Amino acid sequence: MSTSIDALTNLDVVAEGTNGVTAAVSDVNDDLAALRSSAGSELQADVQAVQDAVDEVETAVATLDSGGAAAAVTAVAGLATSARTLLDSLDAGPCAQSTTSTT
After folding, report:
1. Is position 98 within any domain?
2. Taking the model in full, what pTM does it have?
3. pLDDT at 13 over 80
4. Where do runs of H (alpha helix) occur along 1-103?
5. pLDDT digits (tens, 9 = 90+) for 19-72
6. Whole-angstrom Cα distance, residue 73 to residue 85?
7. Is residue 85 domain-resident?
8. In a domain, 102, yes or no
9. Residue 75 lies in a domain
């Protein structure tokens, strides 16, 4: 998930255009779908926040060809924030590896 989010947030929206952003969003959607099915109920709100942000990116991408690059950049930034919250929750949650020895 973090790889696809990083790829999208580091994407040059203006240079890559609609096709580049659409491909990157598709990768995020794939990762999010896998995470949604395996995440516990305590993470579903964060997963939904990322999905909502992805939806905003998809809406903004639809206007790229008509000068909507600023909206797309803003939407991608919002997605990055939502994704960071989700990833932080994953790192802190029961899925996180413990660094404490039990021996």
Report:
1. no
2. 0.79
3. no
4. 2-9, 13-38, 44-61, 69-92
5. 888 899 999 999 999 988 888 888 889 999 999 999 998 998 888 778 777 888
6. 19
7. yes
8. no
9. yes
Q: Are 79 and 90 in contact (CB under 8 A)?
A: no
What is the span of the domain harbouring residue 23? Answer: 2-90
Q: At what angle do helices 2-9 and 69-92 cross, to 10 degrees?
A: 160
**Domains held by the chain: number:** 1
| 47 Cβ contact partners less than 8 Å away, ≥ 6 residues apart | 32, 35, 36, 39, 86
Residue 41 backbone phi and psi in degrees, to 5? -60, -30
* Residues contacting 90, CB < 8 A, separation 6+: 1, 39, 43, 96
What digits encode the pLDDT tens for the residues 72-102? Answer: 889 989 999 999 999 898 888 765 544 444 4
Q: What pLDDT is stored for residue 68 in this prediction? A: 77
Q: Dihedral (C-alpha) 26, 1, 41, 48: value to the nearest 10 degrees?
A: -40
